[in-house]
Design a protein that fits this description.
By secondary structure, the chain is α/β, with parallel strands linked by helices. It is built from twelve helices and nine strands.
Length: about 350
């Protein structure tokens, strides 16, 4: 009863490891049901299958050589090897994909496909989705740590970049622009640059966005939700699982510019964030203030000039008044004047 009350109050109820009664209620109310159990230690069979899945990249490349010998087409040979690797590796590890928006994978090609990088299983997932006419970007460390695998990937169209040197990375990706323009091949890469420690996305780098802008092709976001169920970070063994993938509609880049690239990166990353239920990034650009016409200040009123005082009127015929001397009081002595 407590579980039912809690599920009714939350926004998106999901029944986790429910009892029989709660599972019945969840089905009646169309709530998703999820069950989690201990994976336990990997079995010998899983270890062998994981090793075979990893090795299938090289064997699939070798299997494509006869096609190259017969047709002389490197492109057809690589497409065969790419699809064979995707199907073989998926079958060996028992991985299935639940894809929504699959039509967006083929709506506009060539394109730059970008995905959130959680697990080493992402390579197999992307190969299973894209199938053909793909070039990729990888880190230089792969070529140094596994020379054979690095050589196979390089022949397959992967460009290795030094993530510590931005200028050399830009120069290294120049052939990919030509591959999209002249050969119609698409490019796939992870804008985070490396696998994230947690499901939370890392900041996006700008390389994929500059690449799409220079080639004049759209960006297609591929949102991978639970690749960690197949291969958690740091775990060699692949586990059987179903991975949920959402392919978002292509993002047009025809009106992009270098000046606005940061805002476009933020917008695309927020598409991933919304699909994954993660916090979105706030815009760093300040909205321009609307210009308002200032009202003209009223002109000060001129001060009125003071009126001149009117002069007293003088009657020309009037005689001036005579001044009368005061009479001295009787008995009063007159004061002598000075000088007398």
């Amino acid at each position: 009863q407590d579980d039912l009350l809690l599920l009714e109050r939350v926004g998106k109820p999901r029944a986790l490891n429910p009892s029989t009664k709660l599972e019945t209620i969840a089905h009646d109310r169309r709530w998703p049901v999820a069950r989690f159990g201990s994976r336990g230690r990997p079995t010998l069979n899983q270890f062998i299958r994981s090793l075979a899945a990893t090795s299938s990249l090289v064997t699939s490349f070798i299997a494509g050589l006869p096609i190259y010998a017969l047709t002389g087409s490197r492109r057809e040979s690589l497409n065969f090897s790419f699809a064979l690797f995707a199907d073989t590796a998926s079958a060996l590890i028992g991985m299935n994909l639940n894809v929504t928006g699959e039509e967006n994978l083929w709506a506009r090609r060539p394109a730059v496909f970008i995905f959130n990088h959680q697990s080493k299983a992402d390579v197999i997932i992307v190969a299973k989705l894209l199938r053909k006419d793909i070039a990729g970007v990888g880190k230089q460390e792969i070529k140094k740590e596994t020379p054979i695998l690095g050589k196979v990937l390089e022949i397959g169209g992967v460009v290795f970049i030094d993530r510590a040197n931005a200028s050399s990375a830009i120069d290294a990706m120049a052939p990919l622009v030509e591959a999209m323009r002249n050969e119609g091949r698409s490019v796939v890469l992870a804008p985070e640059g490396t696998r994230t420690v947690s499901p939370k996305m890392a900041p996006f780098k700008k390389g994929a966005f500059h690449l799409a802008m220079q080639a004049g092709v759209p960006i297609v976001p591929i949102v991978i939700r639970n690749a960690g169920d197949v291969a958690p970070r740091g775990d060699f063994v692949f586990r059987p699982a179903t991975v949920d993938v959402q392919v978002l509609p292509p993002v047009d880049t025809s009106d992009w510019s270098v000046a606005t690239i940061d805002e476009h990166v933020r917008e695309v990353r927020n598409m991933f964030a919304r699909a994954l239920g993660q916090p979105e990034e706030a815009s760093t650009t300040k909205p321009a203030r609307a210009k308002t016409k200032s009202k003209p200040k009223p002109k000060p009123k001129p001060k009125p000039k003071p009126k001149p005082k009117p002069k007293p009127k003088v009657n020309p015929g009037a005689k001036p008044k005579a001044t009368t001397k005061r009479k001295a009081a009787p008995g009063a002595k007159s004061r002598p004047r000075a000088g007398k």
